[in-house]
């Protein structure tokens, strides 16, 4: 049986990407593992915000402490997990063997690692079509995966036009 690792980021291009994975999965009789990598820096960003050290007597907001940051992050992780479960359930409704995995860390590294663990035949992921300036500042997960993958990689472009810069 073929194995597809479907890396999603919940951007606008996720719907078409999932649909293409479903079509390919049906054609190949493949199992699909839907993966989303959430950033470890989310909690660090909240914890390092300028309001964390203020007590509630000075700021008209709740707590402003690390616990509040953790709760906000936990809510976001739950939302991402529920979205993943929804995607895998949608694929199963279409008769496909699909499971969801939420990972935390560096997206490119974890996608490649998980593809190796699963012995994936293909990695499918979207491309936002950002320009050179965006790539220089933020990098490109798709580009990193494409350069380092030991299996086939299918990059599905977003439906938006691709800017030159």
Measured between the Cα atoms of the first and last residue, the distance is: 41 Å
* Second rung of CATH, namely the architecture of the domain at 3-40 and 81-157: 3-Layer(aba) Sandwich
- Report the order of strands and helices: EHEHHEHEHHE
Shape: globular
Assembly state of the chains shown: single chain
Count the E strands.
5
Strands side by side in the biggest sheet: 3-2-1-4-5
Helix fraction by DSSP (H/I, runs of at least 4): 40-55%
Quick recap:
The protein is α/β, with parallel strands linked by helices and 165 residues long. 47% of the residues lie in helices and 20% in strands.
What does the model show?
By secondary structure, this protein is an alpha/beta fold. The protein has a domain at 3-40 and 81-157: HUPs (Rossmann fold), CATH 3.40.50. 47% of the residues lie in helices and 20% in strands. It has six helices and five strands, in the order βαβααβαβααβ. A five-stranded parallel sheet has the order 3-2-1-4-5, sandwiched between helices. Helix 1 (14-28) links the parallel strand 1 (3-7) and strand 2 (31-38). Helix 4 (107-118) runs parallel beside helix 6.
């Amino acid at each position: 049986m073929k194995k597809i690792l479907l890396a999603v980021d919940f951007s606008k291009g996720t719907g078409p990407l999932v649909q293409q994975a479903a079509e390919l999965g049906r054609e190949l009789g493949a199992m699909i593992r839907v993966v989303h990598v959430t950033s470890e820096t989310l909690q660090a960003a909240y914890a390092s915000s300028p309001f964390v050290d203020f007590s509630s007597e000075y700021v008209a907001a709740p707590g402003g402490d690390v616990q509040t940051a953790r709760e906000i992050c936990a809510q976001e992780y739950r939302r991402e997990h529920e979205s993943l479960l929804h995607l895998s359930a949608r694929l199963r409704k279409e008769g496909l063997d699909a499971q969801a995995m939420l990972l935390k860390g560096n997206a490119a590294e974890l996608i490649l690692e998980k593809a190796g663990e699963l012995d994936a035949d293909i990695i499918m992921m979207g491309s936002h079509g950002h320009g050179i300036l965006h790539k220089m500042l933020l990098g490109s997960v798709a580009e990193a995966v494409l350069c380092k993958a030991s299996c086939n990689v299918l990059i599905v472009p977003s439906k938006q036009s691709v800017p030159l810069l």
